Structure formats: structure tokens, C-alpha cells
Amino acid sequence: MRKTILVASVLCFVVVTTVRSQSVIGKWKTIDDETGKPKSIVEVYEKSGKIYGKILDILDPQKKDKLCTECTGDEKNKPVLGMVIVKGLQKDAEEFNGGSITDPVTGKKYKCFITLEGKDKLKVRGYIGFSLIGRTQYWHRVK
What we know:
The chain is mainly beta. It contains one helix and eight strands, in the order H-E-E-E-E-E-E-E-E.
């Protein structure tokens, strides 16, 4: 009986650890599309059953104090550092979708979906209309 409980406990620990390591939740390094250099650190988190992403750090010291001058509404002229750029994604099979992503450089909002491409690589797609017209970025987990 004790062996069964021990085996079950170890198995539960392995499953929980594996599931946690395969989560979109965590800190991710974004990469600049044009230069290929690291751009920022975004924390992806869950709130009320939905997924959000907030800019925790801007890696270019000259851009740390940048404001989102092109944004509209409540985000207009707010600091990019600390801005929630991914909003309201919900799990749908192997991806999260149904929310939006804001490009703090242009201020434009796009529909968005994210999916894991391995435990340390996140595919982030922003698009207009349907997902064929858009742009994909790959973010890398910060350890």
C-alpha cells in the first residue's frame, strides 16, 4: 500500500511539473523583427481565466522611458514599460486566442493567438480579419 501511494505521489509530481513547464505563463524575451536583437521582456500571466502579457523590461536603455504616443484611448501617451500589450486570450485546444495584442511602436491593435512551439518558444501571431493576414513573432522563455 505504501509503495502504491509513493508511486502515485511521484507520478503526480512529474505530471504537474511537466504541465507547468509547458505553460505559456512566464517571462518571455521578444525579438525585433528587423534587427533580430532582443527587444523586451514580457510577462504572460493568467487573470480571471484569461491570458494577458505585460512589458516588464525594455532592453534598449534609450527606449526605457518611451511613451505610446501612437496609442489611442486610455493607453495614449502612457509609458510602454509596464503596458499590458496582450489582452483577453482564452484557451482553445492547443492555442490561446480571442483577444488582442497592441504594437506599442505603432499603437495599432490586432487580433491575436499564441501557442507553444516547444517548452521555451512561444509563437505569437497578430492579424487583421483572419489569421492569414498578419505577422508572427517567436518569443523565447526567460529562465
